[in-house]
């Protein structure tokens, strides 16, 4: 099969674009990306839970063929109408392909082509090529031409470029492959491509996508018989040459039987499993202009870790279907928008940094001069304000705090006054304060001030200890641990403001962080 002739303009364009975006994307591998998963609940006649199914899309519909459910391999065909969110089984005509799992498919014009797979019963691996015509709802088998036809296999990749189908790699039960075969749809002819360059090692369970703008096939990961892989190769349809890609950023962990899709200049990889049987549910992005890896921060209804699932792109959304989570086969459906990103807000950056670097932040942060390692913890509790309002003259709403004390000791004055039962030492080592327990009214009254509060000033400016009458604040005393807990009454809005303020201050003082979050 002759390689489709293409001009070198695309390659030159890629180099120009890379130069143009070099500055803005110099930190692409570390820039914060936040995307949200959504679990979909379509109605109708949904397919059974399965793995190794074939998934394609056409005109706003997602098609699922075959795969292995909890009973056996299948040969049924289902469609999901994304507009109406409805599943239905397609009533097809013609000779159905034999039951199989591990086949892959592509769509060209009004036909869906499937190749390969495994029947699971008789040890049969397939190298037949079937197509389903969407207009006639009919299955047909392409003429069986033995010459240059690929060997039977499963766990290969199957992609479409121009009007040709390409097959690379796979496994037939005893051997792994690294051959590249092409099928010219119009000529109905197979050919083996004798590519040059750094040909990838034999493998199966890898992924492959076509970057049409630069006429490249991108191959990632897989299993070579000894280990899972995370290497990256590109094949040029222009020069018929393989090349190992050099990337920047943090490469994804080794894996196979994952999925990869492409949208614009980005390849997205989801899921898979490594040689220790650890499964993944991370979303990795490869910028095909700068060859930079980055992990996408995902929120929402994040799918469980899985392998042998399938994914497809419709418009700007990636749809994830089925797979195996280590316990059972799945039939769930998720979507995530992989279109253009909105630059993250300062709050998103701060929240992400707090989540991943909390220990480092606490070691170098103070609240009004009070080190974080002194403060036990903060409890945001709305009902505390209601109980304190009106009881403390100087304890205003949202401005009441109690600092943690180090220990409980006997007060020297207890001998003179039996009503004095507790004496607490301040963690900072300054003067002590006393609590007087009035048994008749069961109230807790502060009769002295802590020097720490006077010297360093409470974070909220007014301390709960500072009361003007005997009916003082009722404060929770954890006598079992001999400590007072640090309580701070604040609204959720105040909480966010404090977090943003101290993180922003920390970031501004660290040049490294400024470079890290530079857009």
Automatic annotation (TrEMBL):
All residue ranges annotated as the Attractin/MKLN-like beta-propeller domain in the record:
62-328
Task: List keywords of the entry alphabetically.
Answer: Kelch repeat, Repeat
Q: Name one GO cellular component term.
A: Golgi apparatus
Q: Where is this region: Disordered?
A: 1-35
User: Domain of life of the organism in this record?
Assistant: Eukaryota
Instruction: State the coiled-coil residue ranges.
Output: none
Q: Which Pfam families match?
A: Beta-prop_ATRN-LZTR1 (PF24981)
SUPFAM superfamilies assigned: Kelch motif (SSF117281)
- On whether Lipid biosynthesis is a keyword of this UniProt record, the answer is no
- What is this protein identified as? Attractin/MKLN-like beta-propeller domain-containing protein
């Amino acid at each position: 099969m002759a390689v489709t002739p293409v001009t070198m303009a695309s390659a030159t364009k890629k180099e120009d674009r890379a130069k143009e975006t070099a500055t803005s994307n110099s930190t692409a591998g570390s820039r914060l990306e936040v995307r949200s998963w959504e679990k979909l609940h379509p109605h109708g006649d949904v397919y059974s839970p399965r793995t190794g199914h074939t998934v394609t899309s056409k005109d706003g519909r997602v098609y699922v063929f075959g795969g292995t459910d909890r009973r056996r391999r299948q040969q049924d065909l289902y469609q999901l109408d994304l507009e109406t969110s409805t599943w239905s089984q397609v009533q097809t005509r013609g000779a159905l392909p034999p039951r199989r799992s591990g086949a892959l498919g592509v769509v060209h014009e009004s036909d869906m082509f499937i190749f390969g797979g495994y029947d699971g019963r008789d040890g049969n691996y397939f190298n037949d090529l079937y197509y389903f015509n969407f207009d006639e709802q009919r299955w047909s088998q392409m003429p069986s031409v033995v010459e240059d036809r690929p060997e039977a296999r499963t766990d290969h990749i199957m992609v479409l470029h121009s009007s040709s189908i390409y097959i690379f790699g796979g496994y037939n039960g005893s051997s792994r492959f690294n051959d590249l075969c092409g099928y010219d749809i119009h000529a109905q002819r197979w050919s083996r491509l004798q590519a040059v360059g750094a040909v990838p090692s034999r493998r199966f369970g890898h992924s492959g996508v076509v970057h049409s703008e630069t006429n490249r096939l991108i191959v990632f990961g897989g299993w070579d018989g000894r280990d899972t892989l995370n290497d990256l190769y590109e094949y040029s349809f222009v020069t018929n040459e393989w090349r190992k890609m050099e990337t920047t950023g943090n490469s994804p962990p080794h894996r196979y039987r994952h999925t990869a899709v492409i949208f614009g200049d980005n390849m997205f990889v989801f899921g898979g499993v490594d040689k220790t049987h650890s499964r993944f549910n991370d979303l990795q992005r490869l910028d095909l202009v700068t060859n930079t890896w980055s992990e996408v921060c995902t929120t929402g209804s994040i799918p469980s870790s899985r392998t042998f699932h399938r994914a497809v792109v419709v418009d700007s959304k990636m749809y994830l279907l089925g797979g195996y989570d280590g316990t059972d086969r799945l039939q769930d459906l998720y979507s995530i928008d992989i279109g253009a990103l909105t630059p993250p807000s300062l709050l998103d950056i701060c929240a992400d940094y707090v989540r991943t670097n909390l220990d480092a932040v606490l070691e170098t942060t103070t609240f009004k001069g009070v080190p974080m390692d002194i403060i036990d913890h903060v409890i945001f509790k709305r009902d505390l304000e209601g109980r304190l309002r009106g009881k403390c003259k100087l304890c205003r709403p949202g401005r009441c705090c109690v600092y943690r004390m180090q220990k409980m000791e006997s007060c020297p004055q207890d001998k003179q006054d039996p009503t004095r039962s507790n004496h607490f030492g301040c963690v900072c080592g300054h003067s002590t304060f006393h609590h007087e327990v009035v048994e008749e009214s069961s109230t807790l009254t502060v009769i002295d001030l802590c020097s720490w509060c006077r010297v360093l000033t409470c974070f909220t400016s007014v301390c709960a200890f500072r009361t003007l009458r005997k009916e003082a604040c009722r404060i929770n005393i954890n006598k079992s641990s001999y400590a007072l807990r640090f309580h701070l009454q604040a609204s959720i809005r105040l909480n966010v403001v404090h977090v943003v303020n101290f993180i922003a201050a920390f970031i501004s003082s660290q040049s490294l962080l400024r470079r890290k979050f530079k857009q």
